[in-house]
Write a structure and sequence with these properties.
By secondary structure, the chain is mostly helical. The protein has helices at 12-26, 31-55, 58-64, 68-93, 99-109, 116-125, 129-154, 167-187, 189-198, 200-224, 227-230, 233-261, 265-274, 280-290, 293-336, 342-351, 361-378.
């Protein structure tokens, strides 16, 4: 029998990202046109973080806050383990590829987790969705403040090439462009929250269009400054390999920690998906605020590669967890069915210390057979 291997589908958003990179490579914006794109991107970023603040539900946070141990483990993976791996990756790859690309690897590990895909894959795998909402939201809320601080400590303080943006200017830009809109949106949630929640499909394009604007503007500036003279196939292969190694290590340690902490299956899934992802939607705008315009394209290239890799791997893992959950549910349902013959009925009766007189056995067996048939119909295992 032939074995069918189903590969995860490619996220259409990736095609748009690649299209923006190609467009910027062929027709880069320059001069006043580039300035116009920068202004549009900045406005979209302000709107993006305003809506993120408005979408942050206090009810969802309160509903999952009881899982504080799980949330602390997720934050530890996101803002402790990942940065350690990123420092190692930068040290190793910095000898093989352009230092700015290696710095981009370090930047991506300092970012918060994703929200939408983490929650969606947790739901798909049968995990604790309420806890996933809380963990992912908390990661992004912490990341708005913590990621710029980590960038200042690990990147700007080191005087790396391309990171010479003035520290005070970076803080002011983050506060004005990201933090203040986020806080304002959340404070206005009592007034606009209901509208935001009921128009999520209309608001999703804001997320993606802001990222696409920043990517096009960033790569336009990078192309003008000779990015493709500095980046070749070998560099891309190194970035892909480094991303794969980091993601693999995080997932492996994730499983060990979940078992050691005694997490149940639903919470293990939350830790897996919320603790192993990095947010492209948050990362691209932050890069635009934290790095010099000519270097942003190089810095976000590793993030774009890691983003698609994590989607492929996590989609496969979500499907695997879902199939395992379905198998466990089927096994539990089968074990809960009544005994299906007289011998099994007598064995079960003996286990619970229930005597069944010989003259009653035929009637008991018939009743159990009828109950079994009704149970199978209810479980969808019998179409009759």
């Amino acid at each position: 029998m032939a074995i069918r291997v189903k590969l995860p589908s490619i996220d259409p958003f990736l095609l748009w990202l690649v299209g923006c990179v190609v467009a910027a490579s062929v027709l880069p914006a320059r001069g006043a046109v580039l300035a116009g794109f920068d202004m549009a991107a900045n406005a979209a970023i302000v709107l993006l973080f305003f809506l993120h603040g408005a979408k942050l539900s206090r009810e969802a946070v309160l509903a999952g806050i009881g899982h504080w141990r799980l949330h602390l483990m997720t934050l530890a993976f996101t803002f402790v383990l990942f940065p350690v791996l990123g420092l190692i990756a930068q040290a190793v790859t910095g000898r093989l590829i352009d230092p700015t690309l290696a710095m981009g690897l370090l930047f991506l590990v300092l970012l918060p987790s994703t929200v939408q895909s983490s929650i969606a894959m947790t739901a798909m795998a049968g995990g604790n969705v309420a806890a996933a909402v809380c963990s992912a939201s908390l990661s992004n809320l912490v990341g708005v403040v913590l990621t710029p601080l980590l960038v200042a400590v690990f990147i700007h303080s080191g005087g790396s090439a391309g990171s010479a943006m003035d520290g005070l200017a970076s803080v002011e830009k983050i506060a004005g462009q990201l933090l203040l809109p986020f806080v304002a949106g959340h404070l206005l949630r009592p007034l606009i929250g209901k509208w935001v929640d009921t128009h999520k499909k209309l608001l999703q394009p804001v997320d993606r269009s802001s990222v696409l604007l920043v990517v096009y503007a960033s790569f336009s500036a990078a192309v003008v400054n000779g990015v493709w003279l500095r980046v070749g196939p070998f560099d891309l292969a190194v970035l892909l390999a480094a991303s794969g190694v980091m993601l693999g290590i995080v997932i492996a340690i994730n499983g060990v920690v979940a078992r050691g902490a005694g997490l149940n299956r639903a919470d293990t899934i939350v830790l897996l998906f919320c603790g192993s992802k990095k947010s492209l939607v948050s990362g691209v705008p932050m890069a635009g605020a934290l790095f010099a315009p000519a270097e942003v394209g190089m810095v976000i290239l590793p993030l774009m590669i890691f983003h698609q890799l994590q989607l492929f791997v996590c989609a496969w893992l979500a499907g695997r967890w879902r199939r395992e959950g379905e198998a466990l549910a089927a096994a539990a349902a089968a074990s809960s069915l009544p005994p299906q013959d007289e011998a099994a009925m007598l064995a079960r009766a003996g286990e619970i210390g229930l005597p069944v007189p010989a003259e009653c056995r035929a009637g008991v067996s018939a009743n159990l057979a009828l109950l079994t048939r009704h149970a199978r119909i209810a479980l969808g295992e019998d179409g009759a």
